[in-house]
Amino acid sequence: MEYKVRCGELTPRQLAAFDQTGYSEKFIRLLVQRGIDTPAKAKEFFDYRPTKLHDPFLLKGMTEAVQRLKHAISQKQRILIIGDYDADGICATAILYKFLLSKHVRTAYFLPERDADGYGLNIELIKKLHAKYQPDLLITVDCGISCPAEIKFAQSLGLDCIVTDHHAIPAEVPPCICVDPKFPDQDYPFNDLCGAGVALKLIQAMDGLAYAERYFDICAIATVADIVSLTDENRVIVYQGLKKLNQGSVPGIKALATACNIRDEIKSSDISFRIGPRINASGRMGNAKRGLDVILEQDPEKIDHIVKNLIYLNTQRQELCAQIYEECLREIATHHLQNDNIIIVAKPEWESGVLGIVAVRITEKYGRPSIILGGKGDIYKGSGRSVRGINLVECITQAQEYLHTFGGHAMAAGMSLKVTDLDAFRAKMQTVVANTTATHVVDNNRYYDFEITADELNPQFLREVKMLEPTGCGNPAPLLMTVLRETPTAALSSNANHTKFEHGALQFLFFGGAGFNEILAAPCAKSIIFELQQNGNQPAKAIVKCVIPFAINDEEKALVLQRYLHGDLAVAPDASLRQIMRDLRVDRDTFIAYYKAITTLSRRQSRYQNLTTFFRDLVLPDKNIFQLVFCCAVFEQLGIISLTHQRLTVNAGVSTTLTNSALYNQISQQINKE
């Protein structure tokens, strides 16, 4: 995987078009890259008036949905809302539930439990809900479009049904009123609403735009958290919704933001990385109602309890994700899956609720689609993520004979299948993705906008970049590149694994970047890929996403090898690093010799200052700095040694074998292939 520049140089015509705006050349490049290549388009882009929202009646089925819902309200019928267990489904449920309560309708809602109920609708669930609530009208939000059989069954029980969804339209749709912006045969000009956005459009159609504006705040959370495009009317919804949230319109979200250490105004990035994941954690860890409660609850004491529970659930989710991710890496290395067309990994004990997050990390690491499966009993459940050019839901549709359920988008999908069908499913998917790759342009590269110097990171440019908010999918925060040389670093006081440094007028924060401190301090050139973040009136910060070193001597190359072996290098190894790895020795005697030398050194000194000093002080004939790095990485993976916070510890009681190290097996296989 490579980082490539996204924005080319501006043409004289493009520059001239913005001549009267006063924008800097770098900011104009950001606008043009987003398709905003004229001042008129810029004016439109920076226009956040709610009146820009489209006519909801352009959506297919909307007229019928409004008529049926108004009839239900006038006749005081019982209405049941069925949502999904993610942030989008939770917010969509909250929007429609609050709206119907304002109309004094007998309304109930149901959010499924991921393990007990699964995604979307099923026959047993409908039986249970019909018996419990006896509804006259069932309305789905953020689900239902792929459930024709289930809707038919509900209708057989005497239920009228309205499906509101935003997922891809399957070959067969439910035989009821359906509203989905993905229908191709409609005049609606924007097809990337989230599930909550569709619920909002239903309210707009019912009672007008002014009434719908009441729910912009909740819809903004869903729109950002569900990673739909922050363009067109989504941009307006999120901009206006953030204003409402920052005025305290949802007390639970304000309390959650405070608990997430958001001290200034809430931004779209805060929803993406702090608020959204904690709402999602409620559904991922089996209790989606907690996510709904934080939106609906008004009592401060109850809100405090709910927020603490969400924080706890999210911590559990993070720990579980980290554990499964590490197990995934070992499975991939052990079974040589890293070069498959699509990486498919499964273990029965993995919690299915967090596998989408793990799939994201696996796809990012290996630059290819992945599906991660887990579950209980004889059924695997899981999630997949893809790369640009490979439509994942189309691919799994071609293997649907092995699937119990499935659905999703081009870049993300969910599915379930029998454990006994895993091997056949994996084999079919390898063929399907290979055929897709042969006929489509597949792009698994990462992109930054352009290179920028310290002088160009000036107050004017930083003010201009702030105008791009809200940023996210479809309108990403600027990802820039700058070149550094010898750069001293310091640990963050809150966590020694995080590091910081200065460049020009900006402070750079590198979360989890302590392992790069030696590379940053080395005199070689480094490309720093970073995202600009600005919060209210606070100084802008640069969040480091990647360090790409250009090593010259052996010591610098050894530092690069060290980060590669620890899985931290975000780019593929170059020819020099590949040759170094081919020359590594994997025989047992070599590892024993290095273990003895490291043990002897640890008895004399427990401090690990840097790799150069470590290598110099190691007493071993014919020592090799690259072999030292390799041995240490394997020993760390096996728990034989620890190199943390500048301390060297040898754990003498550990009994294991080299082949228990996925890293050792990976390098051994690479050497044997040569």
In a nutshell, what does this entry contain?
This protein has 674 residues and is of the alpha/beta class.
Percent in helix: 40-55%
Overall average residue pLDDT: 92
Number of β-strand runs: 21
CA radius of gyration is 27 Å
Question: Can you offer a commentary on this structure?
Answer:
With 674 residues, the chain is an alpha/beta fold. Among the domains are: 335-439, Diaminopimelate Epimerase, Chain A, domain 1 (Roll); 449-550, OB fold (Dihydrolipoamide Acetyltransferase, E2P), CATH 2.40.50.460; 579-673, no CATH class. The strands form five sheets. A seven-stranded mixed sheet has the order 13-14-18-19-17-16-15. It has a five-stranded parallel sheet with strand order 3-2-4-5-6, sandwiched between helices. The protein is globular, with a radius of gyration of 27 Å.
Give the SSE layout.
Elements: E1 3-5, H1 12-17, H2 25-33, H3 39-45, H4 62-74, E2 79-82, H5 87-102, E3 107-110, H6 114-117, H7 123-133, E4 137-141, H8 148-156, E5 160-164, E6 177-179, H9 195-207, H10 209-212, H11 216-225, H12 232-246, H13 251-259, H14 268-284, H15 289-296, H16 300-334, E7 343-346, H17 355-366, E8 370-374, E9 379-385, H18 392-397, E10 403-408, E11 412-418, H19 422-439, E12 446-448, E13 450-451, H20 459-466, E14 479-484, E15 490-492, E16 495-503, E17 506-510, H21 517-521, E18 525-533, E19 541-550, H22 554-565, H23 575-582, H24 588-604, H25 611-617, H26 625-638, E20 641-644, E21 647-650, H27 662-673
Parallel strand pairs: 1-12, 2-3, 2-4, 4-5, 5-6, 7-8, 13-14, 17-19
Antiparallel strand pairs: 8-9, 9-11, 10-11, 14-18, 15-16, 16-17, 18-19, 20-21
Helix pairs in contact: 5-9, 5-11, 5-15, 7-8, 9-11, 11-12, 11-14, 13-15, 13-16, 14-15, 14-16, 15-16, 16-17, 16-27, 22-26
